[in-house]
Specification:
The protein is of the alpha/beta class and 475 residues long. The protein has three domains: 149 residues, no CATH class; 167 residues, 2-enoyl-CoA Hydratase, Chain A, domain 1, CATH 3.90.226.10; 69 residues, OB fold (Dihydrolipoamide Acetyltransferase, E2P), CATH 2.40.50. Helices cover 44% and strands 19% of the residues. Helix 8 packs across helix 10, helix 9 packs antiparallel against helix 10 and helix 11 packs parallel to helix 13. The radius of gyration is 33 Å and the shape is elongated. It starts with a helix and ends with a helix.
Length: 475
């Protein structure tokens, strides 16, 4: 029983705990893999033309990955990467954009746009890969970039109120009215004139195609040379693209950037609070307390950079407090139900919308959190508490046979005072007990005392033999 309850509780907490951690290492692995693939010298077929190895004498193009909500960490990283690229002799910078919103202030975002616009080297924006989105203030980066393109299956829009760069509102031309509240795919954005130098009707499906888009483009007085054409011995035209250098966040900045997203912050806060509640009902400080404190710290750092709703945060804390009330008795009751309902409501209200974009976590995240909390506080943690505090090693079997007094009526459950302490109790038989009635402890079920009335209680045959007079026994 101890193993089953422990596995159940850990399963309920491990599912939400592993999600943000896995996303950090997965994103690092994907980014590293992408860097290797882009630098491999392997021929590709693009638009019917063979693309071979990278040309060593062409200047590099730097690629900056911009993924997730734009926070202070990612904004600083973009600015530092632009400065580094200009000093390292790069001929252009490509921002690989996939962001549904920004949590920095409008002034901070304006400063970022001004830095991009004033960059000494050309800056291109590629919304990709397929399925990526550029919404809210991040979508306005396309308006100040020198070259913009989109992969098929991507969308941009819902920019909200345009920012002012150098005192002038950013503009997408005739697409301003549409992009303010709606979204556009590649073909629609091209027809509306929202993109710059996107000449391929099929879009830019992969990052390497972005190098072909940049080739020959004159920006800021410089003509980009990113592709070299040659003819091999068989007469086949070979297009050789320049190499790219990826600029990515380090492990710690990436971790802080990951926890600053609504799903990660909610998951870490939930796991941290639940583990601390569990540790509170155990003896000493163990691994659960350390992990819980770490998750709570990371979750607080992430939530602190997001637009928090005070009502949602209060509901989250109260829900954990109500669930803890029933943990101490080892039985899920009405308070557990109320706590789960309040927690469910807090997941919808915890984060405020930004520029008309909802910051609420996805339905998958909500289901994982609500399901994990329900599994933990309804099954796992009460079972673990009953198992821990119901063991004979702490001397509770000594209560069997002791007398006490009921505190309120017991029919069939209630409270009894034994040796000056109050215990959760249940009648050993169907007979209801009144307030102040003398009782005796007949057995223990976990941390619940099974009691019976002092008068009229059944006696063990061994006790009867000890208490009966000799002559009665002779008869």
């Amino acid at each position: 029983m101890r193993k089953i309850s422990g596995i159940t509780m850990m399963l309920g907490l491990a599912i939400p705990l592993l999600s943000p951690i896995a996303s950090v290492f997965a994103s690092s692995s994907v980014a590293s893999a992408a860097e290797v693939v882009e630098n491999v010298s392997a021929p590709d077929v693009v638009n019917g033309v063979i693309s071979a190895t990278a040309v060593p004498d062409l200047a590099f193009v730097d690629v900056i990955e911009v993924s997730g909500v734009i926070d202070e960490i990612s904004a600083d990283a973009i600015e530092r990467s632009l400065l580094k690229a200009s000093k390292n002799g790069s001929q252009a910078v490509i921002l690989q954009l996939n962001s549904r919103g920004a949590v920095v202030s409008r002034d901070r975002m304006t400063a970022l746009l001004e830095t991009i616009k004033a960059s000494s080297i050309p800056v291109a924006v590629w919304v990709g890969p397929s399925g990526s989105r550029a919404y809210g203030m991040p979508a306005q980066i396309l308006a100040v970039a020198d070259v913009t393109a989109m992969a098929p299956g991507t969308r941009i829009g819902r920019i909200g109120v345009p920012l002012k760069v150098n005192g002038t509102n950013i503009s997408f031309g005739k697409a301003d009215d549409v992009l303010g509240t709606q979204t556009l795919g590649f073909l629609e954005a091209r027809e509306q004139g929202a993109l710059k130098f996107a000449t391929d009707d099929r879009g830019v499906p992969v990052l390497r195609n972005m190098l072909y888009v940049l080739d020959g483009v004159t920006v800021k007085g410089a003509t980009l040379d990113t592709v070299s054409d040659s003819v091999d011995a068989s007469g086949q035209v070979v297009r050789e693209a320049t190499s790219v250098r990826f600029s990515k966040l380090g492990l710690m900045p990436r971790l802080l950037h990951t926890v600053a997203s609504p799903p990660s912050a909610l998951l870490l806060l939930t796991v941290g609070l639940a583990l601390l509640i569990f540790e509170f009902f155990t003896a000493g400080i163990g691994i659960a307390g350390v992990v819980g404190a770490t998750c709570l710290i990371l979750g607080s750092l992430g939530a602190g950079s997001l637009p928090l709703n005070g009502v949602g945060l209060l509901l989250l804390l109260l829900s954990m407090l109500l669930c803890a009330v029933d943990v101490q008795v080892g039985v899920p009751r009405v308070w557990t139900g109320v706590g789960i309902v309040m927690y469910s409501a807090s997941t919808f209200l915890l984060f405020r919308s930004v520029d008309g974009l909802t910051m609420r976590p996805s339905w998958i995240t909500l289901l994982v959190c609500i399901g994990g909390v329900s599994l933990t506080f309804v099954v796992g943690m009460p079972s673990m508490t009953r198992t821990r505090f119901g063991t004979p090693t702490i001397g509770r079997d000594n209560l069997i046979g002791t007398q006490g007094v009921t505190v309120g009526a017991i029919d069939p459950e209630g409270t009894v005072r034994v040796d000056g302490a109050q215990w959760r109790a249940r009648t050993n038989r169907a007979t209801p007990l009144i307030d102040g009635q003398a009782v005796r402890v007949a057995a223990i079920d976990g941390i619940t005392l099974l009691i019976e009335p002092l008068e009229g209680a059944a006696r063990d045959y061994r006790e009867m033999r000890k208490s009966d007079p000799p002559e009665t026994a002779a008869e």
